[in-house]
Each structure stands twice: as C-alpha cells, then as structure tokens.
Amino acid sequence: MYKIQTYNKISDKGLSLFDKTKYDINENHTDADGIILRSYKLHDTEFPATMKAIGRAGAGVNNVPVKKCTDQGIVVFNAPGANANAVKELVLTGLFMSSRKVYESITWAKGLKDGETDVPAQVEKGKENFAGPEILGKKIGVIGLGAIGGLVANACTALGMEVLGYDPFLSVDAALNLSSNIKKIEKLDILLEQADYLSLHLPVTAETKGMFNAPLLQKCKDGVRIVNFARGELINDADLIAAVNSGKVAKYVTDFPNASMVNVENIIPIPHLGASTPESEENCAKMVVNQVSLYLETGNVLNSVNFPNVSLDGKGHRFTACAEGNNDLLHGVTEALKKAGVSVTDMVSKTRGEITYIIVITDKEAKSVEAEVKKLPGVVLARAI
Fold first, then answer.
1. What is 308-385's CATH number?
2. 103-123 confidence digits (pLDDT tens)
C-alpha cells in the first residue's frame, strides 16, 4: 500500500484517480511515499526516508525545495499547462482593468451612500473620472510564449490587438500553436519601445529575478500598462512603484501583491487568483495524481522538473536507479544484476543535466540488488518496483 500525504485542499476528482486498493491518502502521514500539494511551502520540511515523489498541482515549483529533493532522490512533478486557460482568462481581466478603471470605479461606486434617489445622479456626474482607453488596435508585448503566454497572445490577437511576442527559448511545439498574426520580436528592447501594454509570462530564475527594474522600465513606452500573472519576483518593487508614481507606468496589475504595493495608487492587487477555478484545480490535481501513481508503480517519469522524462513499456519486474554525475551507472547496475543472477529483458537510460536515470525490466525481482547499486558513485536512488 502506497501512502500519500496531502497539503492544501486537493480536488477530490483528482485524488479519486488513486486506486483505493493501492493507496492510503491522509494529510497526517509521517512515512509517506508521496506528497500532493498546491501552494504549501515545503522548504522547511524534513522528508522521511520513504519519500519518493512530490506532485505540485500547478506549474510553478517555487514552494518545493527542488535541489534538496534531487539530492535525496525524490522526483518532483508539476502540471504544466493544466491551469493555462484559467490564468489566461484572468490576464485578460487584468488587461481590461488596466485600461478602463473598472477597479477604481467599482470602489468609488460602493461608497455612494447619499440615498437611493441621489445615487443615479452621482453616477452620471462621477463617471467622467473613470474614462480609459480601448484595447482595440493597441500594441501588447507578451513576454514569454509558453503554455499561458501563447494562449494570451492568441486571445489578444482575436481581440484586435497588435501582438508582439518575445521568447528566446520558444519551443517548436509552442511556436506551432501561435497565431500567424503574432510578430516575433528578437530583442526585448525593441518590444519595450513599441508596446502600449506588457503581459509577463516568465519563470523566476537567477537571470529573470528583479529584471523589471529602473533601467528596463525606462526603455518602456511612456504610460505603459503592465499585467503580471507570472511571478511577483520578476519585479523590482521599489523601481516599479517609482515608475508608477512618475507616470512612466500608467497602471500595474499584479496577482502577487505584497505590503509595499497594496495601497499604491494605480497598482491593482489581485490575491493570487490566476489558477483559482474549479476546472483548473481539477485539471492540475488529475495531472499530478496520474504522474505520481505512474512513477510509484512503474518507475516511468513524466513532467518532472528535476529528473529526465523517461518511460519504458513492457511486462516484468522493474528496477530503477538514479545517480548524479555518473556516466557509468547503466554498466554498474547491469553488472550488479548479472552477479545476482537476474537477467535484463529491456532497459532505458536518460540524462538531464547531471542526473542519469535508468529503468530496467528483469526476469525476476531484484530487491536484493538495491544495496549493491547504492554503493555505486553518486547514486541517490535505487529500488525495485
């Protein structure tokens, strides 16, 4: 019986995909084989020796200590694209809010308390303070054209905007899904000079953290409107606030508010609602439940952020091993199996960065070989399934 520990509220439609005859799901497990979570921060968590897999029901894994997991042989899975439509819809909401002063006008209207007969007159008089431009025909720069950015770019094209796309790491599959009307811009500076709106869709890395700072914002068109439903850490908060106060940035809509931004005029804070739809939560849960169960039962890896994606079909006993910086892992494993009298009927080996991972199908169980394989240099995981 596999033990699964849950954090946060995970969609029942996702958890129901676990075979109840094979899985015991409980938020209080202390010796779990796997974890399913959404936004709970695991950085201070000590994982038991039994832990084999973590499934993050979402795309980002900032709340998971990936390097620590890799060092302990724990496979981390995510759900890329499962919440893409939900985020896209909120990006479009933010785009309209950045233009039409919807947020400000609603806040103002909710404060009208002078009596029922007077409110219509106040509305007609006060609405002139909340005029804003239409997006039709305007230029929007979509920075990052992955699962979410691609949907946003296509939607903005359908809305009649001129879309400028920037993504130096654009995959072939992502490119094929983009509208032919989207202009691919090779240099970010050129996009910034032209765009009336910016929509951010970048991961947080050492290179992108705080990249939207004073020098970069200065390159933007005066009065640019920025929507950020990617990650708050992309922004240098002090520089962004200064740009908003000066009018360089006309409006900033963020799904990642913090103490410095919640009460700044022309900054619209949204409480991280990008993926907060029942459809998105269900899709993400289903994806990671399938990935975690597939790995625990077969050793096949799909949508891992730290291990190579690798799969091997076929019947028989399975043995898996993983090592860091060990190019001779496959030879060491096969030799250990051979000495134990276990025959290999099929195998596959994949590498991602410094991590090499193999799946071997054998003619009989190889649990007794685990200890021998773990003696090989760099091995962080070795187990019979």
1. 3.30.70.260
2. 999 999 998 887 666 888 889
